[in-house]
Amino acid sequence: MQSSGVRFSSRFHWDSQPNRLTALLAEKRRAYRDNRPSAVLDLTESNPTHAGFAYPQQEILEALSDPRALRYDPDPRGLLTAREAVSQYYAARGVHVDLSRIILTASTSEAYAYLFKLLTNPGDEILVPRPSYPLFEYLAAMESVTVRQYPLRYDGLWHIDFAALDSLAPGDASQDRVRALVVVNPNNPTGSFLKKDEWARLTAWAEARNVAILSDEVFSDFAFSGEPGRGRAEKIATLAGATETPVFAMSGLSKIAGLPQMKLGWIVAGGPGHAAAIESLEWIADTYLSVATPVQLALDRLLIATETIRQQIRERTAANLRVAREALGPGSPFRILNVEGGWYIIVQVPRTISEEEWALTLLREADVLVQPGFFYDFETEAFLVVSLLTAPGVFREGIRRLSGLAGLIA
Asked: Averaged over 246-264, what is the pLDDT?
């Protein structure tokens, strides 16, 4: 890439042109702004601050008004009080996390960047799930690391394809470029949790190949109760207490507190060698010192105050899931794949047209915005991704309009 004679890094190789869905959405919004009173029903909402939740404003603002924020006394691992708040967050979930295992970051994305710096050299490989959130390729490219995808398979439940994992990293000296494997727990967008039997197999797989496990747990507080599975007790909510193999659990305020603008996340290191890993992560963190003092000082109070946000999100997503199942239930040509947690559902639609055409038709004909499955690297057609975070009235009407497009099947 080149601009005005200045050569940019080859890391920046992505096409910045809008896709067909984005272009149509912009056209729709221009038309509504200029000529029509109605609006597009957005079933892709992922920003909790735009979703109509009642935030405890006074408590949040008071937490950020600590006068100690006027002094700058940085700690590369994160202020002690903030790491204590993270430890207490896990203690409330039945997991002991010692302060020495915690490193604060400005976001989960930054946590990934730190871990890629820690674990990889340029040209090394990271294994990431497919389908999943399409962020890993960008984060890895910034570190000159290659992403390879391992599939999740669906047979009524989602599960890791271990045969595919074995083919990606056979475990011999000639295939030693794989340095880490990412699990998203629960996955975005499938909403599937890692299970205990999968973790046992994954531990053995990783130990045999000297591969670290990175566990992205930003949605772990949002499990659905009574969902189908191999038993609720078999789901693993967090790997922050894991000791069997080198593992790095990540989370932060963006999802668990519904506060993406506060810019605070964390890494919990565990398993053999975690002390050396933390020492090296401290060197990385000290290079940037990116986490602001005010949010660190406020963290304990923010986590307490935003329990109301977590509960609102749980209630909203559960209610919208019920609405979707009622509208797209037995007799409908559409099928909602089983989901165990998170903020999204996957709707399987008939393959009479491509999923891209489904999304375009919904937007063009029904003013409903959804995401096609290929945005999340689904291997086959045809799937639509819908956000359960959407405001209830918008969600109900959007799902009704989706259901009304059954005539496209003919």
From this structure: 98
Please tell me if the domain spanning 17-46+308-409 has the same topology as the one spanning 57-305: no
Q: What is the CATH number of domain 17-46+308-409?
A: 3.90.1150.10
The helix/strand/coil state of 367 is coil
Whole-model pTM?
0.94
Q: Which residue has the tokens 């000159």?
A: 144
Cβ neighbour number for residue 4 with a 10 Å cutoff: 4
Rounded distance between C-alpha atoms, residue 375 and residue 389, angstroms? 18
List CB contacts of 350: < 8 A, sequence separation 6 or more: 333, 334, 382, 408, 409
- Report the top-level CATH class of 57-305: alpha beta
- Report domain extents, the chain: 17-46+308-409, 57-305
Strand partners, 159: 153
- Label residue 409 by pLDDT band (50, 70, 90): low
Tell me how far apart the alpha carbons of residues 376 and 148 are, in angstroms, rounded to a whole number.
Answer: 14
Among candidate residues 383, 279, 367, the one with its CA nearest the CA of residue 335? 383
